[in-house]
Design a protein that fits this description.
mainly beta; two-stranded antiparallel sheet; 47% strand
Amino acid sequence: MTISATGIKENSKIFITPLNSTDKQPIIVSAKNIGESFEVSLDSPVSWDVKFDWWVLNVE
C-alpha cells in the first residue's frame, strides 16, 4: 500500500501502529519515495483490510 506523504526524506523515521489484527505479522515500511510517499506491506496477505495509524519524524 502506498501512503502519500510529501515530507518523506532519506532520514525520516516512520512509525506504524496497527488498529486491528495483522495476523501476528509486523507492518513493514517497504519503501521510501523521497518527497512523495512511503510503502507498507505484510509478508503474507490477509483477507481483510488492515487499518493503521502512522507518524513521520524527520531527524537530522
